[in-house]
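Please produce the structure of this protein holding pyridoxal-5'-phosphate.
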Amino acid sequence: MVPATEMARSGLQAQPGLQQSGMHSSRSTPKGSEFADKWTHEPGMVFLNHGSFGGCPREVLDAQSAFRARMEAEPVRFFVEELQGLMDETRDAVAGFVDCDWDDLALLPNATTGVAVALENIALKPGDEILVNDHEYPACLNNVRRIAQRIGAKVVKVTLPWPLPRDNAEQSVIDAIIRGVSARTRIALISHVTSPSGLVMPVERLIAELKPRGILTLIDGAHAPGMIDGLSVRRLDPDFYTANCHKWICSPKGSAFLYVRKERRDRFRPLVLSNNAELPKPGRHQFLTEFDYIGTSDYSAVLSIPAAIKAMSAILPGGFSAVMRHNRDLTLRARALINHAVGSAPVAPDEMIGSIAAMLLPSRRDGAPPSTRPPTSRYGDPLQERLIDRWKIQVPIWGVPGTPQRVLRISAQIYNSFQQYEYLLSAIRHELEAEQR
Ligand SMILES: Cc1ncc(COP(=O)(O)O)c(C=O)c1O
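Below is the modeled complex.
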């Protein structure tokens, strides 16, 4: 057992679960940063996967509880009199954060819905092509495929270079996507930050390439707000931009937005029509009225976005920008540490990394391709299960199309400490060695 004083100095905390498991009876897990207590993570868990579902500080969860209490205290007043104004306050806060006009925003539960509703609103015709790439998020691709099948449109999926070439990496991505364009391409779906591979895509340049070709752009910015410092939807100027706030803005789960370019708002409608569809309000655009209320639901997550922006902005003296810079810096340091130790070259230049980063690990010993999900497996790869069960580390191990190696994707949020990545490295080394035996 590590003595208590030494544990305190090294940032380690006793991990009873591990002692009970008998696997590593003397192991303790490293603590997160000095800000970790603002979150409610399970004690002892080394949480290195903010990217998948985000994480919400206590203070923001309290703000959400207050909205719920207000709703339950007088539900009729809440929905009839108060909800619209509260939705506008949230639109205002989001618009200020991502730089766009407040009335171009629909508030939604998640980015998957944002992609689905945008696709549904573009009047595709048989033979039209929807351009995607092989690093897009599966749920979004499912929505693309379904609408294409229904309409008789074609999904054109291009392969991104992977790992990216050391030189001209951004250009190689742009070239790959533009190669998929044809005279029939109607819309392109592009992640701002790719999920499996953590690439910050050159979306500004891509939009500038696609627009003059008459191609609509649907940007899936699921990870971008709160990760990409200086994000400006106005400057990017896409047709549609959807993003989660529950990832890197750290609002409660179920809070996202969809930006729709002004000229496209007139006939733009939700997937589900509520009472408001037949109740135009004088002086209020139908786009707003319809998206204000899409049936009875718990809107408290969306309404808590302003509280999340405020809470995250108050952590460091430099505001939210300082948090984003800190997270990116921690990601790059952790990536360099792990890549160096396992002998992997970076999959992308630093300029294309935000606060998630993918790294190549050796292929599976059993020869199975990465990211297959056997029915007996809780996660995509047994290595991920061992990291959870033996080491109490939550971090994804999966595959990226086109490579046989497994991919480790780390996230860095202000609650993480560098020691947690050193601990991850020792766990990975140990488990990879054990695999070889
Ligand atoms: C790039 C990307 N798009 C879309 C999503 C879907 O997010 P949600 O499940 O919140 O809709 C994710 C989630 O990880 C993602 O990484």
